[in-house]
Amino acid sequence: MVTAAQQQTASAPDTDRTFPEGFLWGTATASYQIEGAAAEDGRTPSIWDTYARTPGRVRNGDTGDIATDHYHRWREDVALMAELGIGAYRFSLAWPRIQPTGRGPAVQKGLDFYRRLVDELLDKGIQPVATLYHWDLPQELEDAGGWPERATAERFAEYAALAADALGDRVKTWTTLNEPWCSAFLGYGSGVHAPGRTDPVAALRAAHHLNLAHGLAVQALRDRIPADARCSVTLNVHHVRPRTDSGADADAARRIDALANRVFTGPMLSGAYPEDLFKDTAALTDWSFVRDGDLAQIHQPLDFLGVNYYSPTLVSQADGSGTHTSDGHGNSTHSPWPAADGVAFHQPPGDTTAMGWAIDPTGLYELLQRLAADFPRLPLVITENGAAFHDYADPEGNVNDPERIAYLRGHLAAVHQAVQDGVDVRGYFLWSLLDNFEWAHGYSKRFGIVYVDYPTGTRIPKASARWYAQVARTGVLPGA
C-alpha cells in the first residue's frame, strides 16, 4: 500500500519546500576516487591500486593513479565548494597515505595533506566530515589476510588513533566506515570490488571484523577527540522489497535484509547479530570467529547514522523464470549473498540512471521511516545520494544535466516529507562533488555535479551544481 505522503515523493514537488533551520547541506567524495598521487609522499598501494592494475578488473584498464588529481588541486576544489555555498564536505582519509603498511607510525607528509585540506575548508566556512575508511585497505594488510582476519580490525583502531591525534582539534565529525557491506560482500564474496576474492565464508568473516573495526575505532576516537565532536558510521542500507505479497517472497526479502542490513545494524546499533542470519548461514559457518566480548566492543554509542541510498532492491523466491539477475549487482558468476541461492533479484520498474539503477524516491522515504521506527533515538544523515547520467560539455563549454536535477529534486522531496512526518534527518550530502574514478566502471560513469575533463583536469560546474547551490544556500527546495 502506497500512502499519500509516499505518492508525493514519487514525482517532483509542485510547491517550494523549506528545510529546518540548521539542516546541513554538503557534498561527498572518496580518497581513491579523486586524489591520484598514488605513489607520492610515502603512499603505498592499496587493494584498489592492485585490483585496478589487474587486467580485466576495471573497464578500459582505468586506475586511480591520477584520478581527478585532487591531491594537487585541492585548493581549487575547496574554492569551488565555497563558490557553491556548500556547508560541509564529506571526504575520506587514505589509510595507505597516512600509514603505508597499515602498521607503525604515521607518515607526516600524508597527514600534512589532510591538515592543509581541513584548514582550507575551515577558512572557507565549510565543515569537514572525515571518513576513516572508504575501501582503500593497505595492500600489506590484505597480504596478511585482509578483513577476514581479526588483526585487521586491531590495526584499524591504531590507524584511527593516529588520524584523531593529528586532526581531532580540527575535525568535529568522524565516520568510521563507509558501506562495510561493499567491503565485505563485493570485495570477498562476488569479487567485483577489491580485493576481488570469491569466498562466502571470508565475506561473512570480513563483515564481522569490519563491525569490530568500527567499534574499536569509535573507542579510539572518543579517547582523543573533544567531547562535542561526533562519531558515526555510514551504511548503504538496502531498501528491500518483496516482488509479491507471497510468503515465499517475504522470506526472500527477510534473508536479504539480514545479509544486507541487519548483519551491521544488529551488532552496531543493538548489540546482537540477528538469529535468523545465523540460521540462514549455518551450512557455511558456525560463526566461531565471533568471540566473547566482541559485541560489547562493537556496540558503541553513536551521534548519528549515515545513510547512503541510490535505488531499492526488489527480490523474490527464485522460480527459474530467467527474469532476474543472479545477485542484483551485475555479476553472474559469484554472488555477494552467502547462502541465498534461492533468492532472485529483479529490476525495479521505472526510469533508470546511467548505472541502470531504478530512480525511486519513495524507496528513500520508506527507508528513512523504517530506520526511524527501528532506532527512534538515533539521528540520521543522508551521507550519499545522487546519480550518474551521460553528461557532456557542449561546444560552449556548458554541461546541462536536467535528469540529475530531476533526480535530486525528487529525492530531496522524499527527505523533506520524511522530516515533516517526524523523522530526525539532520543533513544531506550529495554524491558526488566531482566526476571521478567509479570503481570497476573506471571513468565511464559520471556522478559529479562538477564535470571533470580527464585529459586536462579542468573542472566545469554542471547545471545541477548551480541548482544545488541555490538549495544549499536557502534551505528551500523549489517546486517543479
Can you walk through the features of this model?
Helices cover 39% and strands 15% of the residues. With 480 residues, the protein is of the alpha/beta class. Strand 13 (450-453) and strand 14 (458-461) form a beta hairpin. The model is unreliable at 1-10 and 322-332 (pLDDT under 50).
Q: Helix and strand layout, with pairings?
A:
Layout: H1 4-9, E1 17-18, E2 24-28, H2 31-34, H3 47-52, H4 70-84, E3 88-92, H5 95-98, H6 108-123, E4 127-133, H7 139-143, H8 150-167, E5 173-178, H9 180-190, H10 200-222, E6 230-235, E7 240-242, H11 247-270, H12 275-280, H13 294-298, E8 304-308, E9 313-317, E10 343-346, H14 361-374, E11 380-384, H15 402-420, E12 425-431, E13 450-453, E14 458-461, H16 463-474, E15 476-477
Helix pairs in contact: 4-6, 8-10, 9-10, 10-11, 14-15, 15-16
Active site: 384 (nucleophile)
Pfam family, one: Glyco_hydro_1
Region (Disordered): 318-345
